[in-house]
Amino acid sequence: MAAERNKPGSPETQKLYHIIEDVEKLSAHHQRVPVEAVPSTSNKAVHEELAEQWVRSGGCAREMAFLNAWFFLELMIKSMAEYLSMTGRLYLTRRSRFSERFVKALDSLSCATIAEVVTRLNKDPRQAAAIANSWAFFVRDAFSLMDRSYVMGLVRDFNRDISHRISCIGEPAATTLMLLKLDFVRIVSSHEHFVILNLPFGPPHSVPTSSSSSSMCMSSGTASSITQVPLSPESVSITSRSTTTTLDSWGSLGSGELSYEFRRCHYLVGLALADLASVLDSSNSSVLHARSIGLIHNLLSSHEADSRLTDPTIRARVAGLYLPLVTIVLDVAGQI
To answer: Which InterPro entries did the record assign (predicted)?
Structure first.
């Protein structure tokens, strides 16, 4: 029986010949296709494609992307880090590390994320909080990879849009949004170089005069809605020679007021202090009070436990970042 099956004319052999012939024809067809006709994807980075496709997506794809924002944003950060390592761009200036196409896609994704947070607030506050927190972790990690001035802009955009929304809606949505905003600042402030990002010294000859340094309005919805352009924390060292001056010559650190100049120079800590002042002055919510006070308490505790900040001179500079706290407490002393 086996010998009959192996004969050239047997049905089994004919079927095998046909299969081999089809495979050879298919293989020959692939060989004739020019390489140029096959689109190459080797030059497309994962983080670029992910950001662009996310912004362009709609329907169920967009819904699932935001429901799992933590995963995709974490994937983007890991792809960005690996991209810098594999291409050697880690040694370039921060502004030259990523393509303009990716930066534009990230701007669009920032706007889309803020819109999703606001839209989902009434339908599902937990989803809104999850998306906001995922974006906060992404922004925090981006400080280590991207141009820090650009990342500061992402923080400013989120703060500005959420603050504007808070001033336009009533309770309890306003309280919920304020809690999201405080959590956003808390997560971003957990960056390992938080002190350096806040520029713990004033720029030369920047001591504000009484006529040029206006105090911030602390009413609800206005304390954090003022648009500022944060100074760049690029190439800053807390032990640099330019910071060996005394407290009186540290410019904005010597004012002790939560002024426009202070918040522009020390942006992140300025956000935390402005939110604290706004909540204590205009809100009766004990939850908001506890959250805003806890934010400042955690920051101070982290500085106290930081082994890099043991030098008395450095500690004095860090303490100068919180000088407006004295004024804030005195202003609300009668309400506490």
So the answer is: DOCK
